[in-house]
């Protein structure tokens, strides 16, 4: 664990900030090693349009609490959800209703230079009938940012999250008696440099993931020690602004997964190259599109390399001031989560639309498609998830959200259909 210790100490010493969030809570309000050179704004500011679900109105949006030189944003989430297929099983469909209580808080300094802060979150899910599915998740992150100059900043964080795995995830155990729990501990640092036309970002992180065994059908213990891993990531990206409207971008990122279990060799390392454009055009388009090439090399000589070209994209289209359409695509190599496979190539693409029906009411709908190609078994899963929701801002202290989602998966080993209805209340003290 020496790499983790080194990264954690470095992140603590520089007191810097990067974006990370607990799975059980909303994303932090604070984050990023962002720097702003006095002459950089005209080339890299992307604020010509405002997304329908991001528009802010006085008297409707929550106001942070001022605590001296700090501001805090506490949130209490209360929700009820009805699900048609708790275990995501084709042969053992069981429905249930669960209630959720999830308090969280983000706090950060308001200094003119530098920043320190923290995020904390707790989420408890209580099932009405299937009490074995009830669980509590929690997480804590400390972060900060060091503004070295007007054009250079350094950032980082240390974190620990006690989480449970969603059964929709790639490596999730389907049909298990209880979801898999795991602890994610780590640290990350990044740096950003900007001039009038150039931006350079670098990052480094180490995360230790420790999975807990679970109890399966018939009181069988589902051993998950083979999934315990130390994951090291690093990357660098550079952007050159050709005009105010668009910039060319190049990225290189690496990942190294070392598994703790003896026996089968599941270690793997890979590198991804991306090149493309970042833009905000007068034709109501904003986003980033890059072509990518991935080369992943498993340590096990019996497994072949994964060499894949693909597309990474995140684009917003603003047909009117009240409507925003989103399009995205990505491709990655993930842990397979089972002993038969070493990894899985995951391709995801989809679209969504947000419409501001009223100043305080936004309607949203999203759909995504995901293909998972497992290696070396050649198993292939195809998953589709559709969702529709409405977010009603009652006042600055209370927001109400209702929604429906449908998930279906076609798989040789884990097919399922699941429907969910949710009503959620967010309280901002």
Task: Give me some keywords for this one.
Porin, 429 residues, disordered N terminus, 21 strands, two-stranded antiparallel ribbon
Descriptive report:
By secondary structure, the protein is mainly beta. It has one domain (2-427): Porin (Beta Barrel), CATH 2.40.160. Helices cover 4% and strands 60% of the residues. It contains two helices and 21 strands. It has helices at 2-14, 41-44, and strands at 65-67, 70-83, 96-109, 115-127, 135-149, 152-164, 181-194, 198-211, 214-215, 221-222, 229-241, 246-259, 268-281, 285-298, 306-320, 323-335, 343-358, 361-375, 380-395, 398-410, 416-427. It has an 18-stranded antiparallel barrel. Strand 20 and strand 21 form a beta hairpin. The two termini are 41 Å apart.
